[in-house]
């Protein structure tokens, strides 16, 4: 059988990339994990995670200054040591263990160990922060083929072998693209993109532009919707923003906000 171009690189099942936000990593509800487990027979999964709030509290504890500039953490060498430990070790292992206990056997992978490469975004302004990530899929396909769940921390390696921190939303989008994933799912601490009390069910590129302009979409939601848009393609036709406190789908019906490629505004 010839493999169609739209099939995921690993063959058989369609693949879902789940980005678990740092805001949610310590608060994932078992009912959410149960909904992932229920989809195990139909899909393969790759997890990418953040650790923002845990990194911030550890930096504070150690009195290391790392201010945010244009939404990115200025990461000096001592700050990067904290990022490597908290993101690449502690939180990565905790999350892999949680998935192993409640969903399926998982394997923690630091992105910088052969999966993600990136160059310094702008060393003098941001320090150890990587720009556009490039993805090598081999070390993700291996566990997938053995029915393990890869849990990836968004650390990247530069051409010179240094480790840099990459935005987790962007890294997840890069991985979804490289693996020709079916869906990119952002698991966060809100039930979707909200307008007041209402969950917006669907967003097109035109809607996103307008909602950012109106500041309905702001802060941490901006990199998420931008990464979603950037990742969409002929194969990856939709991204979803869901809460980690509820099931992400019920009887085949997805929760949250869908982002698709249509230029035409369907919401506004
Ligand atoms: N329109 C919006 N709808 C929902 N959340 C929004 C919106 N605009 C901004 N946000 C903010 O985005 C946050 C999620 O992004 P972030 O804190 O970076 O989470 P994560 O750790 O998942 O990346 C929400 O908690 C909320 O404060
Ligand atoms: Mg965020």
Automatic annotation (TrEMBL):
InterPro entries: AceGlu_kinase-like_sf (IPR036393), AcgluKinase_fam (IPR004662), Asp/Glu/Uridylate_kinase (IPR001048). The keyword Amino-acid biosynthesis applies. Residues 15-242 form the Aspartate/glutamate/uridylate kinase domain. It comes from the Bacteria. It catalyses: N-acetyl-L-glutamate + ATP = N-acetyl-L-glutamyl 5-phosphate + ADP. Pathway: Amino-acid biosynthesis; L-arginine biosynthesis; N(2)-acetyl-L-ornithine from L-glutamate: step 2/4. GO terms for molecular function: kinase activity. It is an enzyme of class 2 (transferase). The keyword Zinc-finger does not apply. Its EC number is 2.7.2.8. Pfam families: AA_kinase. Keywords: Amino-acid biosynthesis, Arginine biosynthesis, ATP-binding, Kinase, Nucleotide-binding, Transferase. This is acetylglutamate kinase. The gene is argB.
């Amino acid at each position: 059988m010839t493999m169609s171009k739209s099939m995921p690189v690993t063959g058989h099942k369609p693949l879902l990339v789940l980005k678990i936000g740092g805001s949610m990593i310590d608060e994932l509800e078992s009912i959410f994990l149960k909904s992932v487990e229920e989809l195990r027979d139909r899909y393969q999964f790759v997890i990418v995670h953040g650790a923002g709030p845990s990194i911030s509290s550890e930096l504070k504890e150690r009195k290391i200054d790392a201010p945010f500039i244009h939404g990115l953490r200025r990461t000096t060498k001592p700050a990067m040591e904290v990022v490597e430990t908290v993101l690449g070790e502690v939180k990565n292992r905790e999350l892999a263990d949680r998935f192993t206990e409640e969903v399926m056997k998982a394997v923690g992978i630091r992105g910088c160990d052969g999966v993600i490469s990136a160059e310094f975004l702008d060393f003098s302004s941001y320090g150890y922060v990587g720009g556009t990530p490039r993805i090598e899929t081999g070390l993700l396909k291996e566990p997938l083929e053995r029915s393990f769940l890869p849990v990836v921390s968004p650390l990247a390696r530069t051409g010179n072998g240094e480790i840099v921190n990459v935005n987790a939303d962007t890294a997840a989008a890069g991985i979804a693209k490289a693996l020709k994933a079916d869906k990119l799912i952002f698991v966060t601490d809100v039930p979707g993109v909200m307008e007041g009390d209402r969950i917006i069910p669907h967003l097109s590129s035109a809607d996103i532009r307008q909602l950012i302009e109106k500041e309905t979409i702001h802060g941490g939601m901006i990199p998420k919707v931008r990464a979603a848009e950037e990742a969409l393609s002929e194969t990856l036709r939709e991204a979803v923003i869901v809460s980690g406190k509820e099931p992400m789908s019920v009887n085949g019906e997805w929760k949250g906000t869908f982002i698709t490629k249509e230029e035409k505004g369907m919401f506004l």
